[in-house]
Amino acid sequence: MQFLISANPGQPARPLTKVASGGELSRISLAIQVVAATHSTVPSLVFDEVDVGISGATAEIVGQLLRKLGENGQVMTVTHLPQVAAQAHQHLHIEKQAKRDTTLTQMALLDEQGRISELARMLGGVKLSDQTLAHAREMLHASQRPPH
Predict the structure, then answer these.
(1) Looking at domain 13-79, does it have CATH number 3.30.559.30?
(2) How far apart are alpha carbons 140 and 129 in whole angstroms?
(3) pTM to 2 decimals?
(4) Matching CDD domains, A to Z (predicted)?
């Protein structure tokens, strides 16, 4: 079986394997999962960087789709984008630390203030300014409101 896709209006449908990037394949997979979720019996879905190669408004839409998917089952998503992370029902922070000959991984569930700090770090880097923290707070609060 071969899947055909037209990624842009006016272009002919071509084999998915020939025209889709890794990020596009991830987003197509996500779209299929969102559509199939209403009939799915799979209790958990894991997406590892489904947002690769996107940013801005597109990342926010992907985050919204993941949040919607999470209303019907457990969804775990690895992301480096604040637009996606802000949409989550819960936010876990995972950190690796190398010590001598071993690597330790720590995971923590973030409370609201922890989420704001982590979103600000994702937005602005190491030094958190008042503006970056305000942007992160606004992003988190806006994403948690029910849709109109």
Answers:
(1) no
(2) 17
(3) 0.79
(4) ABC_RecN
